Structures are given as structure tokens and as C-alpha cells.
Amino acid sequence: MPNEPKLIPGPSFFIGKGDDNGLISFGSGQPDLPPPPEAFDALTKYKGFKYGLIQGEEPLRAKLAEEYPAAMPEHFVITNGASEAIDLVLRSISKPGGKVLLPRPYYYSYPFDVMYAGMTPVYYDLAEGGKINYEQFEKVAPGCRAVFINSPSNPTGTVQDIETLEKVEALCDKLGLYIISDEVYKDLIYDRENYLLHGKHVVTVNSFSKTYAMCGFRVGYLYSQDAQLVSKVIEMKTHTSMNTSVAAQIMALAALRVPASYVEKHVKIWKERRDMLYAGMLELGLKLWKPEGAFYVLPKLKNSGRVVSDLYYKYRMITYDGAWFGAPDHVRFSYALDASKIKEGLRRLKKFLKTEYREY
After folding, report:
1. CA-to-CA distance for 247 and 45, rounded, in angstroms?
2. Are residue 88 and residue 24 in the same domain, yes or no?
3. Were 293 and a residue from 111, 189, 272, 342 both cysteine, which residue would form a disulfide, CB within 3.0 to 4.6 Å?
4. What is the mean pLDDT of residues 252-257?
5. Residue 291 lies in a domain
6. Could you tell me whether strands 76-79 and 220-223 are parallel, antiparallel, or unpaired per DSSP bridges?
7. Average pLDDT for residues 88-116, to the nearest whole number?
8. Rounded CA separation 220/165 (Å)
């Protein structure tokens, strides 16, 4: 049809677009809550305008080591967000013909990161509720170079069961596989504490973007007790981005020192918004899993590419196509936005479902 809006090509079309001129963004997972004031206060006397350590500033790495059992500062590399950490790890472990096992749905960058590292992504499908089907995982993991675990998950909000994660640990240790554990939402869990994966070749990836609402400052890190891998990552980073912003690292260190109540208060807000959006979508008749962490829901919506396009061009709403995450006929909604906007978004979604969507 000549008057139909064109499909959105991918996430880059939306990243950086804010809530303006009536636009409501359920898209990018960017907290609308403020970073700790202490992070900004740390820069009032800052005068460090020289190159920093490639591995990351020692005080920040030392403080991070306090959060992980038996960790030392040398086990960490500070990166430009979690994205650079994943990229560097994959390129450091890459081998010709290497395969990397991904859960499906997956975070939309994973397959591209694997391919850019010269390896091939292979997949296993998550079961009901976004949980790992261990029997399937056990069949496809042998022969892979590495496996990805993402708990809590983007895009499903699922937190994997501890018993399953322990089985994954044991299998990958037996097979000598790297586990890349993406834990950027580890502090945003509603029902239990995060489970830290262990093992000789486990690489934990995290960032300050979600826990401390510091997305734009691009501070992430990887943690591993595999000294050889850490050394390879540092060498590669020397020739790519060099040091991560030293000023942003100063802010990150200040954020780590804030009381636990800062994070607890935010988690309470995320849970309230989760309940509001989840209940609202059930009321609209949509089918979806209830998130246990992070801040996303992934309802079923047929012809998801057209849904995302229509919601943006006709209803001034940003959403993400589930096909970008390996989940066609689903649409990802982030609830990292004010409750009043969630309510208005649900109102617009209800109107869309009763009009255009009925014609699909």
C-alpha cells in the first residue's frame, strides 16, 4: 500500500531518540531515574586529563574486586560499556571455524558480535518463561568455543534458575568452554539475589549503565580469573580504544560507594512499573512472560515489524521488533519510563489493537 509507513530497519534508528513532541519511548533500555549525585560531585575537583591505564584505573578495579569472591584488581578490565567487553572477549578467544552458542531470544548485538569476531553463532531456543532447557543446551554445547548466558535477560526479563546455572557451569567446565555471562541487570532482580557463575573460563560482563543509570558515560567491565584471557583483552584494547574515559571511571567509583538504599529504591520502582505494564498488557489480551528482573516485557504481536512501524509513525511510540532479538511476532517494550507515560502508552496501544491491528 503506498500510504503504509516503511518498516524500521533496526535498533540504530531509535537509539538516542528521547521523549519529545509527544513521543513515548518503550524502546531503548535506558533508565529515566537519575545517577547518584555523588557521581557528579566526584568531578568537582577532577583534573586528570592524561591517558589512563588500559586495564582501567586501579582504585575502581580494587573496589569492584570487593564485590566478587576471591577477586583481585588484576582480574578486571574497565571497558567502554559492556558492549566493548563482549567484543574484546569474543575477538580474544576467536578461532577459525569457532562456534558460539546463543540463547534465543538473544540480545540483538550478540550474533553480530560473534560474526565480527570471525566466528559463527549457533542457537538454542529458550523454553516457556524464557528458561534454559538444559537437555537441549547439553546437546548443542559440545563443539562450541563459548556459550552466552544472559540472566536477567534482555529482552525477556527472565532470571535463570540456580540449579540450571550450576549444571551449565559443570558442563562447560568439563568441555573446556568459555562462558560469557552478561550480567548487566544483575542488581535489578525482584525475587532473589543474583547467582554468580564460576569456573576456569567464566567471563562476567557488567556495566554501570543500568544499576547506576549511567548509560551515556559508557563504563563497563569484564571480570575473569583467566589471566591469559585478561592479558589478551588488554593487549587488544591497547590497539583499539585505549583507555576508557578516566573521568567516567571516577564517576563510576563514586557510584560504587553510595549506600545500598540507592539501588534498592530503584528496584522497588522498576517492580512497580513491571506490575503496571504486565497487568495492563494482560488486560489488553496480550500473551507474555512475567519478567523477574531487568525492565522489559516481550508480548506476542503478529507481524511485529509492521506493529513497530505503525506504533511509531501513527501513535508516536517507540518499541523494538522482536525479530531483532530472534523472536519474530513479538515486540519488546521497556518500562524504563515514568508511570504516567506507561499509562498513556497503554491507552495508545489499546486504540491501536482495536483499529489498525485488526486489519493485519
Report:
1. 11
2. no
3. 189
4. 98
5. yes
6. antiparallel
7. 98
8. 23
Residue 316 CB contacts under 8 Å (≥ 6 apart), including other chains: 21, 22, 23, 24, 348
CATH of the domain at 278: 3.90.1150.10
Give SS3 for 341.
Answer: helix
Q: Do 197 and 270 belong to one domain?
A: no
Per DSSP bridges, beta strands 220-223 and 202-207 are antiparallel
pLDDT category at 32 given cuts 50, 70, 90 is: very high
- pTM (2 decimals)? 0.95
Pairwise CA distance, residues 147 & 103, whole Å: 9
List, for residues 306-328, the tens digit of each pLDDT value.
999 999 999 999 999 999 999 99
Distance between CA atoms of residues 253 and 28, nearest Å: 25
- On whether both 146 and 178 belong to a single domain, the answer is yes
5 occurs within a structural domain: no
- Whether 249 and 281 map to the same domain: the answer is no
d(CA 119, CA 164): 26
Range of the domain at 319: 11-34+261-359
* Residues 21 and 45 grouped into a single domain: no
What's phi and psi for 124, nearest 5 deg? -130, 145
Q: Are 74 and 99 in contact (CB under 8 A)?
A: no
How many other β-carbons are positioned within 10 Å of the β-carbon of residue 30?
Answer: 18
Helix (H, G, I), strand (E, B) or coil at 344: helix
Residues 226 and 124 reside in one and the same domain: yes
- Could you tell me how many residues make up the chain? 360
Give the chain's domain count.
Answer: 2
Q: Are residues 202 and 118 in the same domain?
A: yes
Q: Is residue 208 part of a domain?
A: yes
In three-state secondary structure terms, 33 is coil
Q: What is the DSSP string of 236-278?
A: HHHTTT-S--HHHHHHHHHHHTS-HHHHHHHHHHHHHHHHHHH
Q: 49 pLDDT band (50/70/90 cuts)?
A: confident
- The Cα–Cα gap between 330 and 252 comes to 35
Query: Of the candidates 85, 107, 116, which has an alpha carbon nearest to the alpha carbon of residue 151?
Result: 107
Co-location of 273 and 193 in the same domain: no
Cα radius of gyration rounded to whole Å, the chain: 20
Report the alpha-carbon distance of residue 79 to residue 66 in Å, rounded: 18
